[in-house]
Design brief:
Thrombin, subunit H; single chain; 8 helices; six-stranded antiparallel beta barrel; eight-stranded antiparallel beta sheet; Pdz3 Domain; mainly beta; 28 strands; 40% strand
Length: 402
Amino acid sequence: MDTSRGVYSFAPNLEHSLPAVVKVQALGRASVASDDGPKPIQGGSGVIIDAANGIIVTNHHVIDGGRNFTVDLPDGRFLDAELVGADEDTDIAVLRARGTGLTQVAQVDSDELRTGDLAFAVGYPFGLDQTLTMGVISGLNRTGRGDTIEDYIQTDAAVNMGNSGGPLLDSRGRLIGINTSILSGGMGGGNDGIAFAVPTRIMRFVVDQILAHGEVRRGQVGMVVGSLTAPRARELGLNIVRGAVVYDVRPGSAAERAGLKRSDVITSLQDRPMVNGGSVQASVGITTPGTQLPVTYLRDGKEGRTVLRVEDAPVHAVRLGSQEAIARGLTVRAGSDGVVVQVVEAGSLAASEGLKAGDIVTRINKASVRSLADFASAVDGQDRLHIVVERDGETMEFDLIR
């Protein structure tokens, strides 16, 4: 109760967080025929989580394809921002903007949330100025797009185009998630009361990894899982449809050493109920190597328990084709002048270090690079890459360290 006005209001609890919600704009390449500078290609929202260092969290799909970035502050200022890193699997990106007088939001552990809690979405929908909407948490541990790294908060707070990357707040104005997607039955992509947010539990892991390494370093357990469906449950003689079916176990992997087998149904991991394959992917995907994960599973209708030890993911080998090679966020092609960078993956360490399309790779770790085969040989299995490129007649050097 706001006694001075005689009304009920959430303003006192929320207004201290609203200055931390910013508008994010991704800019593309400038037109050759124009001197107007880089052109806006897409936009969304973001939230400042560390005012002292200018750290802003938004969505990967908001910054994807951008070469430069700006953020508009609620007080009318705008700042240039640099991409620190991004993770497509969780749709999280981290920007850094330099400025004074910034405000940050407080965070709360999303594991403390309960269905029915009030939730407030803040952002810049449809090009409007900062907008606040209210709803409730409609569900937890939701997946919306398949068996990927998903463990969403579902809310009916109105989230629309432009809200992507903005914060989901609790009734005290604390950050509980990052708005990322909606389910819409309309042609215009409008709100139908079903929106998803990446919980702070996942956001914190991703942001910490990006700030520490420039990318997300995930562990692995060596198994392929999928969601338990009603037909599959009947095949296994089960009367449940919540869980993740183990479809494959790699020989010599952590999953094999833990005793897991094909057709096992994982119902709990790290003392968290596993609703489907996405729940397992989310739990493993935000776990560092060396972590012990208690597992509960069903085999032939009987419950079993074991422990998975998360292992380091192997260094990805280069994919070498006849026309191009792909490795470490770089797609290169053989050109008349040597090996030319065609694509730099948004959010990759290569992007954060400043490599760009058009760069001509001449040396990697002191080895001369004249062909795709040279590139593949120099990159494959290396934790540290010292890359020398030619750009606009100048020699530039970059270090990529996993």
